[in-house]
Amino acid sequence: MNTIVITGASSGIGLETALALTRQGFNILGVARSESNCNKAKERILSENPNAKCTYFLADLMQQREVVRVAEEITSYLNEKCNGELYALINNAGCVRSWYMTTDEGYEQQFALNHLAGFLLTHKLLPALKKANGRIIMTGSQSHKGIKVRWDNIMLCHRYNPLTAYKQSKLCNMLFAKGLNDRYAEDGIRAYVVDPGLVNTDIGNKETGGLVNFIWSLRKRHGVPPSVPAKTYAFLCEQKNTPEGLYYYLCKEKKYSKQVTSENADRLFELSERLCDIHYGKV
Ligand SMILES: NC(=O)c1ccc[n+]([C@@H]2O[C@H](COP(=O)([O-])OP(=O)(O)OC[C@H]3O[C@@H](n4cnc5c(N)ncnc54)[C@H](OP(=O)(O)O)[C@@H]3O)[C@@H](O)[C@H]2O)c1
């Protein structure tokens, strides 16, 4: 049975993706921060599919030491039960913020969770992904378009605009996937970004201020249920031969920003490696 790690698998898109993939027979390792939400998620999966194989790991992925700890726990699990192989990693956990807020390391929170957490977790799980010719899928967004990375102020600490920070973090998802393919595609590892579209989840109602909370409560009513984007992750995981594209929406390739270049991807790798104190190198 192939194993897939999904971050942010306790609600919204991550939970529906976990459900869809357990139905396809994958062994799911979910990662999220709240024990009660993880327990509820597991109960829901098992109530809909009593044969589902799923295990939850707790970690606040905004903090790098937590990413490292949970990566070690997952690696031990994979070594013990899965011959050290990881079929796919879905970096989906994400947040929106209304104000400039930082992590324990002093990093802006949307950048830290939406980009750096996946960058660091992927690095730690790369040996297991390599063993399985694995795939790495980021949850991106259409909002990565119409923006450039602010290389001289990537945390946006001067004149913080929360929407700009969110959009930039989603552009980083694209650049990270592009950089992974540049480095590892010829070794059998492939990276993708899923655009879920507008989805009716509570992302804008968690740890946000009154205005963002209010606007998101109105906006999300126009969104599709999270079971819709879950089909695209299932599509990318079920293909025997890895699909060739980078950016997918509703199971089809989609055009992405001209900012998604190898040059920008290399620049982001260099910066993120410094911020996470790691070095990717070649597989
Ligand atoms: N909704 C949309 O329209 C939309 C559109 C484009 C892209 N996206 C992207 O989709 C992804 C999932 O978002 P969603 O809409 O499904 O929202 P969601 O329902 O709030 O799901 C976010 C997931 O991340 C987890 N999480 C949040 N902070 C965390 C932390 N510090 N450590 C570990 N896990 C954490 C949440 O846990 P809890 O259950 O404890 O909150 C939840 O499982 C995000 O990357 C988002 O940017 C969403």
SSE blueprint:
Blueprint: E1 3-7, H1 12-23, E2 27-32, H2 35-48, E3 53-58, H3 64-81, E4 88-91, H4 109-131, E5 135-139, H5 162-184, E6 190-194, H6 210-219, H7 227-238, E7 247-249, E8 252-253, H8 262-276
Parallel strand pairs: 1-2, 1-4, 2-3, 4-5, 5-6, 6-7
Antiparallel strand pairs: 7-8
Helix pairs in contact: 1-7, 3-4, 4-5, 5-8
The structure holds NADP nicotinamide-adenine-dinucleotide phosphate.
NADP nicotinamide-adenine-dinucleotide phosphate (NAP) binds next to α1 and α4.
How is this structure best described in words?
- With 283 residues, the chain is of the alpha/beta class.
- The protein has a single domain (3-276), classed as 3-Layer(aba) Sandwich (Rossmann fold).
- It is built from eight helices and eight strands.
- It has an eight-stranded mixed β-sheet, with helices on both faces.
- The chain is globular, with a radius of gyration of 17 Å.
- The structure holds NADP nicotinamide-adenine-dinucleotide phosphate.
